[in-house]
Amino acid sequence: MKEVIATTAAPGAIGPYSQAIKAGNLLFCSGQIPVDPATGTVPEGIKAQTAQSLANVKAILAAAGASIDNVVKTTVFLADMSLFGAMNEVYAEAFSAPYPARSAVAVRELPKQVLVEIEVLAVR
């Protein structure tokens, strides 16, 4: 059985996918790019974009009754691996030990030419 999780506090899905799906005690959050849901704008720079992507993730988690502390796995997509250090600084402020497992990869291109996209798997 799966339950759709949706909130206006994060950018809406543009296409045939859900912001998140809850299946049993697992919460699968779609990748979040750094679009401000209130204005539709994207902030400048990797640090601001990472912070906005994480804010979007947190909003979806909250809609599911979870928090960043429930995250067990993240995947970070970067437009370029040279952005890793600055992204990691902001990322490190969002999570506390024990940190979730993480993959970080560079991809050729992200939607809206953003610099970062973050998806998470949480347990609730």
What would you say this structure looks like, in words?
The model has no long low-confidence stretch (mean pLDDT 97). The chain is an alpha+beta fold. It has a 6-stranded mixed beta sheet, with helices on one face. The chain contains 2 helices and 6 strands. Strand 4 (71-78), helix 2 (84-94) and strand 5 (101-106) form a beta-alpha-beta unit. It has helices at residues 46-63, 84-94; strands spanning 2-5, 20-23, 26-32, 71-78, 101-106, 116-123. The longest helix has 18 residues, at 46-63.
Oligomeric state: single chain
Fraction of residues in helix = 10-25%
Assign an overall shape.
globular
| H/I helix tally | 2
- In angstroms, what separates the terminal alpha carbons? 15 Å
| Classification by helices and strands | alpha+beta
SS strand fraction: 25-35%
Short description:
The protein has 124 residues and is of the alpha+beta class. It has helices at 46-63, 84-94; strands spanning 2-5, 20-23, 26-32, 71-78, 101-106, 116-123.
